[in-house]
Specification:
The protein is about 35% helix and about 20% strand. The strands form two sheets. The protein has a five-stranded mixed beta sheet. Helix 1 packs across helix 2. The N terminus and C terminus are likely disordered.
Length: about 190
């Protein structure tokens, strides 16, 4: 999208909201994928967990924390949900968190992603997945606000400016989940025994 009037880029997202898709516990037999948008100062962390069908089952958003608490939260959710793939954003403070998880915890399901020039592609792919109803999201207030307010504006030389009256943490975590869900679904298995 390239609107400058701040209409949401995610037209039709209301059609993929399912208030019954929220679960606090994993469902035996489902394969999960977890994405972590990392933020500490003037930002929030958001962990999004969804299944192989594109159904987001759990979102955890928190702020005013530190890297130790974020790492502990990731480890606890990894133990509980047993995701096939666990993506950690490696921009800023995310990189040392990723390295701690990789070096000290030897997580075989861990991948890192440094967000750079691919942000536009990732958000465009999320826009497409929403329009095609490839995802199902819970009625999570902060995510809904961010989807309603998020806009991309094309600037000179093809650069893009992202704007929102709210933060973009939930949107970015959802975009990361969408990316790994599409890329890795159907790969691997986790033994629930």
């Amino acid at each position: 999208c390239s609107w400058t009037d701040h209409n949401s880029c995610f037209v039709g997202f209301q059609d993929i909201v399912n208030p019954y898709s929220w679960f606090n516990e994993p469902i035996e037999g489902e394969k999960y994928y977890m994405a972590c948008d990392i933020g500490v100062i003037d930002d929030a962390c958001v962990f999004t967990i969804g299944n192989e069908k594109g159904q987001v089952r759990y979102i955890h958003r928190f702020s005013n924390t530190n890297s130790v608490d974020i790492t502990d939260s990731i480890l606890a959710l990894d133990e509980k949900w047993k995701p096939q793939v666990l993506l950690v954003e490696t921009n800023g403070v995310g990189l040392p968190i990723y390295r701690t998880l990789e070096d000290k915890h030897n997580m075989s399901n861990l991948i890192g992603h440094h967000l750079g020039s691919d942000k536009y592609e990732m958000l465009s792919d999320l826009q497409y997945s929403i329009a095609e109803k490839e995802l199902e999201i819970p009625d999570y207030k902060q995510l809904i606000l961010e989807l309603e307010g998020f806009a991309m504006e094309t600037q000179g030389y093809g650069s893009v400016k992202y704007t929102s009256p709210y933060k973009d943490d939930c949107v970015m975590s959802l975009a990361y989940y969408n990316m790994i869900h599409k890329k890795y679904r159907g790969y691997g298995s986790y033994d629930w025994a």
